[in-house]
Amino acid sequence: MLTRRLLLSTGIAAVFTAPWRAVSAAARQPFEVTRSDADWKRLLTPAQFYVLRQEGTERAFTSPLLNEKRPGTFACAGCQLDLFSSRTKYDSHTGWPSFYAPLDQAVGVTRDTSLGMVREAVHCRRCGGHQGHVFDDGPKPTGLRYCINGVALVFQPDNPSPR
Known about the structure:
Elements: H1 4-17, H2 37-43, H3 46-52, E1 72-76, E2 82-85, E3 89-90, E4 98-99, E5 107-112, E6 119-124, E7 130-135, E8 145-148, E9 153-157
């Protein structure tokens, strides 16, 4: 028999275990670049592995890329696919690098219902690495805010300084 206690405990358990799902919607899709968890762990830092492969989130205001203002391209830290141009980066005051648009054919979006919320998760089109989320409170011309974990990105300046 269903009781309120059973329904409540089941609902609470679902909310608290959702972030630790073993396989995300993005991870179930076929990608050009696929590796085992062991291979990803060898290639990525622990923080990158946590965000890119386990859909984690870095702490706000901790990424050096938050204040990156040089012209260039932001690429996936997992497979180096170019994802965002510095021309679309802006300060959203959220604590994460934010962009109003990705490069063409660079990212995919899946529904994320973890933490009891419904959001749109952003992942790299080539390797499936979790980048962050997209929200509809961004600036013109798109009205979108791609809120991206800096640790999931590498920055490639347009004109690297000579050594």
